[in-house]
Design a protein that fits this description.
Blueprint lengths: L7 H10 L15 H7 L7 H15 L4 E4 L1 H5 L6 H5 L5 E5 L9 E6 L7 E5 L2 E2 L21 E5 L13 E6 L10 E11 L10 E13 L4 E21 L6 H4 L15 E22 L5 E24 L12 E7 L5 E9 L2 E23 L3 E25 L6 E6 L7 E3 L10 E3 L8 E21 L7 E26 L12 E6 L7 E5 L1 H8 E3 L13 E20 L2 E23 L9 E23 L3 E12 L18 E3 L8 E14 L3 E25 L20 E25 L10 E12 L9 H4 L12 E11 L2 E10 L2 E6 L5 E6 L2 E11 L9 E8 L6 E5 L1 E10 L3 E9 L1
Parallel strand pairs: 4-7, 29-32
Antiparallel strand pairs: 1-6, 2-3, 4-5, 6-7, 8-9, 8-42, 9-10, 10-11, 10-41, 11-12, 12-15, 13-14, 14-17, 15-16, 16-19, 16-20, 17-18, 20-21, 21-24, 21-25, 22-23, 25-26, 26-27, 27-28, 28-30, 30-31, 31-32, 32-33, 33-34, 34-35, 35-38, 36-37, 37-40, 38-39, 39-42, 40-41
């Protein structure tokens, strides 16, 4: 009926290597019985080609517009996590994050030009928690060795629970009963970073993993176990400039020597970050299938990540703030470009610091799921329960050192370079640790933070699939189901000054010193590096608190209770010689969201200023959807999809919290009353397949976002509840008002997003027999949007004017060339994206946006697998490289001649071995 020529062998491979898609999906169809006997002699492919062909088979049989990564594909790429693998899919782009924890690894994924906020992530069809402040998953926490397949749904259907607005990313672990035999696999990698050793951290890292899959009791029991470990060095060179770049201070004459109208940054720093990132992941699956009627599957997943790093930093304040010493700041020989941007000069009267910025972060994720399927002649029942929990414990410490005795003012040469490392040329020597003291510097002696996050999600699902009567010949069956999810996310962030102990100013002792780090890339030379937490313990005191007025809004609890019900009719029919598959249905989502936090009332007696706030709302969305796949002759597929979509707001935007003032009240905080992002979407895709080996595709999509959530100031906000206990202070003559201005995330005006995706995957032997073994995969995505937003919280970096959508690159390209023959494999992969607005965490631990220069990241691998008749059968030797061009990460403020960060993380080379038996 479906007019598909799919060999039994390829179907078996696809089933074995890729578990069932999201629990809601029914995207594969068994081949016609008559084809099985004639296709059994199909040549079995292995390695890279097998992974590619499995992915093509799943994509071709899907009823939605999907992109797929197979287990072989993940296992053959030089990827520490699945984020890099996802970034090679059409329409997806990764952001390398310049944060203390990830240090240049791809961490978050944008789907079809929308920020990670708009996509949701599932693990075995179930929504999972995250250790970040938001709901979006940080993919670097998921080892590629433990993920057996990934399916990205670009169009939803009614039974896809937890769907995102831009896409839904479903990671799947292995199903042991899909294998016909025992499989044991071991792998190991030894790596080196090209930046080399610095401070107390060398350039070497390692990864190893083990997997065991087996079946017992006449294939009624199956078990899969997996373990993956990685320990990688963090090596980073960075020059950063203060934000904002502005003419405000030069216009007022506050930057002596710089002409009015010149855009100027008030500080510059150079650093070498060193540390280690460790991660241990565990996976276990147990299946029980006593008959064809009942299948029970228990999934368990655990990952623990720890990163410890220190930024050894030289920093200069250029705002005429040197501790009050004279002479003050004077810029001589200033250089200004045609855009009015300060590009260099000599700054005198400055008092540089040498700083140690320490970060320790521990993340844990646990996920459990139990699924039971009962299959009868005319219907199937599925019951699923799940629980996941994530925790994050972080410690940030800083030490500030300056030359003493005070003051030791310096004259610094500056060259601002937007295309490389800016240069800082000090006049004094900062390499001698005995000349630098922990003291009350211009930035104090130090500051620390202790952020903590806990995210917990529990859910249950019940679904029935019922055959349709023959009278309704267009429909194969209908799904009816309900899902309940209860999520609670809590964050606290204690902070405080790190003060000098009773001994006063202190030189960091030799036993706490590491090898000095070389900042020669920035023109500075060597500076000391030391054990920051040990220095705090020996010379300083740190007592973080949460109850100060500016810390109150940083602690919050957000709760969501979501009930999802759906009905989906699955279409399977023919119109002439054109097969038609797909589904039509509707999903109802009822969400009950609330948040608890505190606000600070300065009119209250000391010790009683902190008062609770608890707000929330309940809403219901109805989401109709239609997916159609028209199967034309010659393996041509035309897909059409239309749907109403939602994405729930960021968790941290739904936090409660507000600060009040006297007279006319005012405040800022979160907004537990937010509605979700809502959109209407249309997709059209044409796909041409060439047997099981290759395909080309062209897809267009259009999304009409009805609203967008961003921070706005709302006048006439009703503060009555918050002012109920307000005490009018003595001497206040103005009457107390109950309405004022409140700045918080609000549902604002939306707009449209549209795009074109072009994809091709084919072996070159289709063009010429001498090219057998060679192949290419390529995709190009072109995005456009008329949506403009304001983000006052990021005004220092992106300005006060409307900006384009965060995460939107107008152009995204992916290209892979490979060769595979007689056991030898080689692959080069490149991902490229144009400029975009990225999201980072700033010094205060808050979300902020920055312009990010587009990047071009290249990875490669070569390997050799010994033949079956070799004594070394099952052994693979490989050499991998990532970021081979040492692509920098660059951010800027408004225009590229006003840089904010220029960072290099170096190349990574890995030598490894795989063994299967």
């Amino acid at each position: 009926m479906l007019n598909r020529k799919r060999s039994a062998l390829s179907i078996a491979l696809a089933v074995a290597l890729t578990p069932s898609l999201a629990l809601a999906q029914s995207t594969t169809t068994a081949p016609p019985a008559g084809n099985a006997a004639t296709d059994l002699d199909t040549v079995q492919v292995t390695g890279i080609r097998r992974g590619i062909e499995n992915a093509i088979a799943i994509k071709q049989d899907a009823t939605s517009v999907v992109e797929v990564i197979s287990a072989e594909d993940i296992g053959k790429l030089p990827d520490v996590s699945i984020a890099e693998s996802l970034a090679r899919l059409p329409g997806l782009a990764a952001q390398r994050v310049a944060a203390q924890r990830v240090a240049g690894r791809a961490q978050v994924i944008s789907v079809r030009g929308l920020s990670p906020d708009f996509a949701t992530t599932l693990l075995n069809g179930r929504e999972v928690v995250s250790t970040g402040d938001n709901r979006s998953v940080e993919f670097d926490q998921y080892p590629s060795e433990l993920v057996n397949g990934v399916t990205v749904y670009k169009t939803p259907d009614a039974a896809l629970v937890g769907q995102g607005l831009s896409g839904t990313i479903d990671m799947q672990t292995v199903r042991p009963l899909a294998f016909g035999e025992r499989v044991i696999a071991l792998s190991g990698r030894y790596s080196k970073n090209s930046l080399g050793k610095a401070a107390n951290v060398d350039a070497f890292g390692n990864r190893f993993s083990a997997s065991y899959i087996d079946q017992f009791a006449d294939n009624t029991w199956g078990i899969a176990l997996g373990y993956a470990h990685s320990d990688n060095p963090i090596q980073e060179n960075q020059v950063g400039l203060y934000e904002p770049w502005t003419t405000e201070q030069t216009d007022q004459g506050n930057r002596p020597g710089v002409a009015p109208g010149t855009a100027f940054s008030d500080g510059i720093k150079a650093l070498r970050r060193t540390g280690n990132a460790k991660r241990d992941g565990y996976m276990a699956t147990v299946q029980f299938r006593p008959s064809n009627v009942w299948t029970s599957t228990l999934d368990m997943f655990h990952t623990k990540a720890e990163q410890i790093d220190t930024a050894n930093q030289f920093e200069v304040n250029l705002s005429n703030y040197n501790g009050g010493y004279t002479p003050g700041l004077l810029i001589t020989n200033p250089q200004v470009n045609g855009n009015g941007t300060f590009t260099g000069g000599t700054a005198s009267g400055v008092y540089p610091l040498v700083r140690g910025m320490y970060n320790k972060r521990e993340d844990k994720i646990d996920a459990f799921g139990w699924n039971n399927e009962l299959t009868f002649d005319s219907f199937k029942l599925t019951a699923d329960v799940n629980y996941s929990k994530a925790t994050r414990d972080e410690l940030n410490l800083e030490n500030n050192l300056q030359l003493t005795p005070m003051p030791q003012l310096d004259t610094i040469g500056l060259t601002i370079n937007p295309d490389g490392f800016s240069q800082i040329r000090p006049g004094l020597d900062y390499s001698n640790p005995e000349a630098l003291y922990l003291t009350n510097t211009i930035y104090g002696s130090g500051y620390g933070k202790v952020p903590q996050v806990e995210d917990r999600l529990k859910g249950a699902r019940l679904q029935g699939t019922f055959n349709m009567p023959e009278a309704l010949s267009w429909f194969q069956d209908v799904d009816v189901g309900v899902n309940y999810a209860d999520r609670r996310k809590e964050k606290t962030q204690a902070e405080g000054n790190i003060l000098l102990g009773a001994q006063g100013d202190a030189n960091v002792a030799g036993d706490l010193q590491y090898a000095p780090v070389n900042l020669g890339f920035a023109g500075i030379g060597y500076i000391p590096a030391w054990n920051v937490p040990a220095a705090v313990d020996r010379y300083m005191t740190f007592n973080p608190v949460t109850n100060l007025d500016y810390l109150i809004p940083k602690s919050w609890v957000v709760q969501e209770k979501t009930t999802t019900a759906w009905v989906r009719a699955n279409i399977n029919t023919d119109i002439g010689d054109v097969g038609v598959r797909g589904n039509i249905g509707v999903q109802m989502i009822t969400t009950d969201q609330s948040s608890q936090s505190n606000y600070f009332d300065r009119s209250r007696p000391v010790g009683q200023e902190v008062l609770p706030i608890d707000e929330g709302k309940k809403y219901t969305d109805w989401l109709p959807s239609l997916n159609l796949a028209f199967l034309f002759p010659h393996q041509q597929t035309l897909r059409f999809a239309v749907a109403k979509q939602v994405a729930r707001p960021r968790v941290d935007q739904m936090r409660a919290g507000v600060d009040t003032a006297t007279g006319k009240p005012g405040g800022s905080g979160g907004n537990p009353l937010l509605d979700p992002w809502r959109a209407n979407a249309i997709d059209l895709s044409y796909e041409k397949y060439f047997g099981e080996k290759a395909y080309v595709a062209a897809a267009i999509f259009y999304k009409d976002l009805k609203s967008y959530v961003y921070t706005q100031s709302v006048d006439d906000y009703d503060f009555s509840d918050l002012l109920a206990s307000y005490v009018i202070p003595p001497g206040m003559t103005a009457p107390l008002q109950t309405t004022g201005t409140f700045s918080a995330p609000q549902n604002g005006e939306g707009g449209t997003l549209r795009g074109l995706e072009l994809t091709a995957s084919f072996p070159l032997e289709m063009l010429a027999e001498p090219l057998r073994g060679f192949g290419v995969q390529a995709s190009a995505t072109f995005n456009d949007s008329d949506i403009k937003i304001l983000d006052p919280e990021s005004a220092s970096s992106v300005g006060t004017d409307p900006i384009s959508l965060p995460g939107l690159s107008e152009r995204v390209y992916n290209f892979t060339a490979y060769y595979e023959r007689n056991g030898f494999e080689a692959r080069v992969s490149q991902r490229r994206r144009s400029d975009f607005i990225g999201e980072i965490g700033n010094f205060n631990g808050n979300r902020t946006l920055r312009y990010v220069v587009g990047e071009n990241v290249t990875d490669a691998q070569i390997s050799y697998t010994f033949a079956d008749d070799s004594a070394l059968h099952g052994l693979t030797l490989l050499l991998q490289g990532s970021n081979l061009t040492n692509e920098p990460y660059r951010t800027y403020a408004g225009t590229k001649d006003r840089p904010l960060e220029y960072i290099e993380w170096g190349r990574t080379y890995m030598l490894g071995v795989n063994y299967k038996f």
